[in-house]
Each structure stands twice: as structure tokens, then as C-alpha cells.
Input
Amino acid sequence: MIPIEAIVVLGLLLFAVGFVGVVVRKNLVVMLMSLELLLNGANILLVGFGRRLGSPRGSIFALFVIIMAVSEAAVGFALVLAYFRRTKSYDADALDDLKG
Amino acid sequence: MITLAVFTVFAVLALASAVLVVVQKNAMHSVLYLAFTVLATAGIFFTLGAEYVGAIQILVYAGGIVVLYIFVIVIVNLKEVVPERRPLLATIVLVAVPVATGLEVAYLLLAKGFPAPGRPGEGQGFRTMAETLFGSYLFPFELASILLLAALVGAIIVARRKLIHDPD
Output
């Protein structure tokens, strides 16, 4: 029997690691990867709570989150390709034209 | 007991490779560690009794998204490693904010403990899940398919090299 606290702590840790990756890294592709880590952490929490409540709804919402992650990855990569074509760089600092 | 041991192993693997995804300087190494994290997360789903989500995780994440990442890294040609420069104070603040957020939520959740679930749910089997998904959640399910179609069309249009001037 897995305690719910362990699942919550695992999901939170994975979420925090992904959050750090999104905020600290400047490489756009690695930032997108960290977004996948965030979504994985949220999925672990959803599945864990669904199991605790004995309900299929946790798995169903995790399924919707996965569908959303696929859409996000596709559009995100299209944006990265357009960005690369425009700036010849994948560094998020290359578009600081609006810096005041 | 053995389930807890397997869960612990997968949890440690997922967390270690997640940290390596963020820390790696070479993006291709990050992708490989991301694949490792995704597979370990699928193992966690299996130990939690969510076999369907685990299988979808392997099929869609490990088979689809990770391959997409590899394609993009090859196209963008991320071979050269550019050092990321940032002041030390900014890095400390940026790391501290997510850590503090996680600690706060963990404290709030664990200090009060979890209430016992009230009434027993419907169960988690495939049959129950399918009946709920195509019963109560039919409309969001169809919306998800429209979302995928819109994302597909949008990705093609955004990534296209330039506008095609069609005389018609």
C-alpha cells in the first residue's frame, strides 16, 4: 500500500524540478522539456488522488492532460522552428528587442 | 510491501533523471534523460494501478513526444553548447521561488493530513473508466479531438517556411 503522502511529495518534487528548469534555463528546447516534467508531476498527483478516491476520474483527467501535452509540444516546436528561422538562435535572450 | 518498494525505485529514478534533464548542457542528453523520466513515470502509473494511463504514457510520450524532440534538435542543429550566463543572485532567486512554492504546498498538505475518502468510489477498472469517459466526459473527449486537430493545423501553419501564393 503506497501512502498518499509519498505520491503527493513525488508529484510536487517533479513539478518543482520542472519549474526550476522552465525558469532557469535559457535554451528553448530544454524549457519545453521542463514543461513536460511539470505536466508529468501533475499527472502523478491526478492518478494518485484518483486511486485514493477509488474513482476513474483521476485517470481520465490524466488522459486529458496528456492530450494537452501533445498539442502543446506540437505548437511549441513549430514556434521554436519559426524562432530559429528568424533569429538563427535557440536562446530565449535573442528576442530582447522589447527590453525597456 | 513489494509495491511500495517498486514505487520507491521508480520514484527515485524519475526524480534523478528529471534533475539531470534540467542540469545537462547538451540538449540531446536532456532528451535521453527525459525519455528515462517518462518511462519511470509510466512505471509509477503501473504501480498506482492506472494501467491505461501508463500505457498511453509509453505510447504517446516515449513514442511520440520524445521522438518529436529528437527531430527538432536535429533540425535546429543543437550540437554546439552555448553557455548560459546569468548573475548568481538571479539564479539563486529563480531556484528558490519554485522550491519555496513546493515546500509551502507540501507543508500545507501534510500538516493537516488527508481526510479519509467519504464513500467508496466506482472503482478504477477499464470498464468503469470507459463508461465514465464516454458517459460523463463525452463532450470534453470530443473537444480534445478538436483541440488536437487545431494544434495540428496551427503547427503546420506556424512552422511553414513562407506563405504559399496560391493563384486560386
